Amino acid sequence: MEFFEVLRKRRSVRRFQDRPVPRELVEKLLEAAFLSPSSFNRRPWHFIVVDEEEKLKALSKAKLGASGLATAPLAIVITADESRSDVWIEDASIAAEHIQLTSFALGLSSFWVQIRNRMHGEGKTAEEYVRELLGIPENYRVLCIIGIGYPAENKPPHGDEVFEWEKVSRNRFGKPWR
C-alpha cells in the first residue's frame, strides 16, 4: 500500500473479528517498532505482546476507554526504561505509531490506549494496574497499549477537512503558510 494511502485510510478501530493475528504478522509489527528512531539510538523500549484472552480482558479494565481490548485478539504494551533515556516518552511514542501504521499496511486495524498519566480507579493509576498485571519492573514506564486485530467495523478514510492549513505558519508564528 502506498504510504500516503496508509496515512489517509488508517483509522482507530475498537471492534475486532474473532480471528487471531498470525505470529509472522506480529513479528512484522515488532520489526517496525525496532526500526523506529530513538534519541541517541538508546532504544529504551520493551514491548509486551499479549494474546491471552483473560489478560486482554484484564487490560481492558485498566482505565475508562480501554474496553476495546476485550475484543482484540492482540495487544502490544509499550513500555520504556526511563533510566536509559530522558525522552523515553517520545521514543516509545514513535515506536507505537510505527506499530499502528504497519498494522494497517498489513491489513489489520489498531487503536491506542493511553496509560501514562491516566487513572485506573480510586487511588491507583492505570500504569500501576498494568505494571502489577504484567509484572513490569519499576524502572520501566508504561506509555500505552496498542489493541490490534482484523477489523469488525469499517470507517471512511480521512477527508481533506483534516488539513488545517490555518495551523501552519511560515518563518514566524502567525504568519500564514498559504
What is the strand tally?
A: 6
Distance between the termini: 30 Å
Task: List unreliable stretches of 5+ residues.
Answer: none
Structural class: alpha+beta
Strand numbers in spatial order across the main sheet: 1-2-6-3
The proportion of residues in beta strands is 15-25%
Order of helices and strands: HHEHEHEEEHE
Helix segment tally? 5
Helicity level, as a percent range? 25-40%
Major sheet summary line:
4 strands, antiparallel
Overall mean pLDDT stands at 96
**Rg, Å, rounded:** 17 Å
Overall 3D geometry? Answer: globular
Question: Overview of this structure, please?
Answer:
The protein is built from 5 helices and 6 strands, in the order H-H-E-H-E-H-E-E-E-H-E. The chain has 178 residues and is α+β, with helices and mostly antiparallel strands. A hairpin with a 2-residue loop joins strand 4 (119-121) and strand 5.
